[in-house]
């Protein structure tokens, strides 16, 4: 093969290679965009945004239900746990509201504090406060008895079954361990460790 032919063949191969590369680029780009974004953690800003969306969706669903249009139901969401407050006409409406809330994507559980005729505010609040107080006391005692978290000053607060841990622990593993201890206590719906910090070395 003479020099001219070799040069021509080389040019053809070079063009073919570039064309193949250009054709492959869009396929790679499409694959990259198909990757699911990381899901929001249970705690922090991402969870707050998700909770806001859940609250809005639950409210919309409740308003769309004919039997609940004349009721006033307050909806709050914390770490995926939806709390329903207010009053409804009967036990069937109360159960219906909870079912609707549970059907919304992202809802982990529903705390149904809706009142029906004959149920006083005082009764609901006393029951709720007693439950949260018991959970707080139980979580504190479990943390104090644990060899990893013993000696650390961890503050425990519970609202509607959602436990919030505040304080300082030595390592990330210790934070995860404390969260696991709290989550295993009966009645705990979720545990927020966003306010638990790791001690500086």
CATH topology description of the largest domain: Histidine-containing Protein, Chain: A
Question: Tell me about the biggest sheet?
Answer: 3 strands, mixed
Task: Calculate the terminal CA-CA distance, rounded to whole Å.
Answer: 71 Å
Instruction: State the secondary-structure class.
Output: alpha/beta
Keywords:
alpha/beta, Histidine-containing Protein, Chain: A, 3 domains, three-stranded mixed β-sheet, 5 helices, disordered N terminus
Task: Explain what you see.
50% of the residues lie in helices and 22% in strands. The chain has three domains: 1-35; 45-119, Histidine-containing Protein, Chain: A (2-Layer Sandwich), CATH 3.30.1340.30; 124-198, Histidine-containing Protein, Chain: A, CATH 3.30.1340. With 201 residues, it is of the alpha/beta class. Strands 1-2-3 form a three-stranded mixed beta sheet, with helices on both faces. It has a three-stranded mixed beta sheet with strand order 4-5-6. α3 links the parallel β2 and β3 (109-115). The chain is elongated, with a radius of gyration of 28 Å.
Short description:
The chain has three domains: 1-35; 45-119, Histidine-containing Protein, Chain: A (2-Layer Sandwich), CATH 3.30.1340.30; 124-198, Histidine-containing Protein, Chain: A, CATH 3.30.1340. Helix content is 50%, strand content 22%. By secondary structure, the protein is of the alpha/beta class.
């Amino acid at each position: 093969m003479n020099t001219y032919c070799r040069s021509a063949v080389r040019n053809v191969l070079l063009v073919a290679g570039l064309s193949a590369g250009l054709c492959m680029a869009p396929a790679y780009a499409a694959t990259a965009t198909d990757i699911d974004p990381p899901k929001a953690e249970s705690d922090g800003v991402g969870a707050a945004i998700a909770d806001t969306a859940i609250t809005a969706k639950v409210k919309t669903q409740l308003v769309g239900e004919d039997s609940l249009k004349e009721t006033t139901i307050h909806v709050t969401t914390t770490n995926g746990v939806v709390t329903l407050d207010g009053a409804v006409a009967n036990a069937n409406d109360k159960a219906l509201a909870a079912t609707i809330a549970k059907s919304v994507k992202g809802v982990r559980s529903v705390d149904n504090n809706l009142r029906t005729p004959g149920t006083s505010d005082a009764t609901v609040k006393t029951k709720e406060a007693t439950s949260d107080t018991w959970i707080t006391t139980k979580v504190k005692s479990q943390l104090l008895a644990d060899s990893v978290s013993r000696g650390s000053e961890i503050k425990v607060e519970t609202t509607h079954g959602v436990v919030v841990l505040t304080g300082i622990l030595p390592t990330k593993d210790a934070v995860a361990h404390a969260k696991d201890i709290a989550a295993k206590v009966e009645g705990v719906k979720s545990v927020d460790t966003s306010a638990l910090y790791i001690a500086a070395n």
